[in-house]
Design brief:
Elements: H1 4-38, E1 44-50, E2 61-67, E3 75-82, H2 87-94, E4 105-113, E5 140-144, E6 154-158, E7 162-164, H3 173-176, H4 180-191, E8 216-219, H5 225-236, E9 241-246, H6 248-262, E10 271-276, H7 281-288, E11 294-299, E12 302-304
Parallel strand pairs: 8-9, 8-11, 9-10
Antiparallel strand pairs: 1-2, 3-4, 3-6, 4-5, 5-7, 11-12
Helix pairs in contact: 4-5
């Protein structure tokens, strides 16, 4: 039989536990309310549009108020954190293709998911942007909106064309918006140097260690978007010597990249040469790189490999 003091202590303990449960429930409800408010979608948004085609200074490009799109099956709606302007985006405006939106690079947060894509959150699959696939509200993603419309507060993208963005400590949300199109272009260009178009794209490095023991790679226009990233990918894939060319304006940018890469390379095992792109400069680099095995980039508006 409990004494009066013991009974009082038990009642107080039960009351404290009930109060703690109630406080935790209130905290959970508050968090759910904040989360719901964070992903509450407005009916309209700001977006870039061009009713007609135009060239520089692109006076036809305007900021418009348009309805926020709704994702269909296989799509996600992303609240944009960052994007970038690529030559293809300029071409789109010049030919009049920006009436319903333009821009392809995407970095942002998934705020809505098309019905068939729900529950397809990442882990096993892989999107075109690389890494784990993304498919649930709250996913921080990057990728390409191939249908355009990335120059807006919200943009639709196919779930297959975005993937989970690396941790913010590795790539910031805004910076990630500058990578997808040029990064994928460089990646697949370099991967195709080790295989024919009719063959599957190789996994990992396209250059087997047994076949390319002292690989020299030439990447033209090293200060351009694809060239700058191409140099980094070539290094990551095991290139021992990397030649590139650039104009005077881009020389400092490429030299800074070389200094960064040299911290990861022993001078005895590999090196990088930057050739200022003057008449014959690229030819001189090719003559010096007599054992050149791989070349990738843009030259005279045409891709070389």
């Amino acid at each position: 039989m409990l004494t009066k003091n013991e009974d009082t202590r038990q009642r107080l303990g039960a009351a404290r536990r009930s109060a703690m449960k109630f406080a935790l429930l209130l905290l959970l409800l508050l968090q759910l309310h904040v989360l719901a408010a964070a992903y509450a979608l407005p009916k309209t948004m700001k977006a870039v549009r061009a009713a007609t085609k135009c060239n520089k200074p692109f006076s036809c490009v305007k900021l418009a108020t348009v309805p926020v799109p709704t994702p269909r099956a296989g799509q996600v709606l992303i609240r944009l954190n960052g994007s970038s302007v690529n030559p293809s985006d300029v071409d789109t405006v010049e030919v009049g293709g920006c009436a319903k939106g333009c821009g392809a690079d995407v970095s942002g947060t998934v705020v809505a998911v098309g019905s068939a894509a729900r529950g397809a959150a990442g882990g096993a699959a892989s999107g075109s942007a690389g890494g784990a696939a993304a498919g649930k509200v709250g996913d921080e993603v990057w990728g390409v909106a191939f249908s355009g419309g990335a120059y807006a507060e919200y943009v639709l993208a196919a779930t297959a064309d975005v993937s989970l963005r690396p941790a913010a400590s590795a790539v910031g949300a805004a910076a990630a918006g500058t990578v997808p199109e040029v990064g994928l272009t460089s990646l697949f260009s370099l991967k195709r140097t080790g295989s024919l178009p009719t063959e599957p794209i190789p996994a990992g490095s396209p250059w087997s260690a047994s076949k390319y023991k002292n690989l020299t790679v030439l990447i033209t226009a090293g200060s351009g978007g694809t060239g700058f990233i191409g140099i980094e990918i070539a290094k990551a894939y095991g290139a021992k010597h990397i030649f590139t060319s650039t104009t005077g304006e881009g020389l400092l940018l490429v030299l800074l990249l070389v200094l960064l890469l040299l911290t990861l390379i022993s001078p005895r095992r590999g090196g990088h040469r930057v050739l200022q792109e003057t008449r014959g400069g690229l030819r001189h680099g090719l003559q010096e790189g007599r054992h050149l095995r791989v070349a990738a980039g843009q030259l005279g508006g045409r891709r070389v490999r």
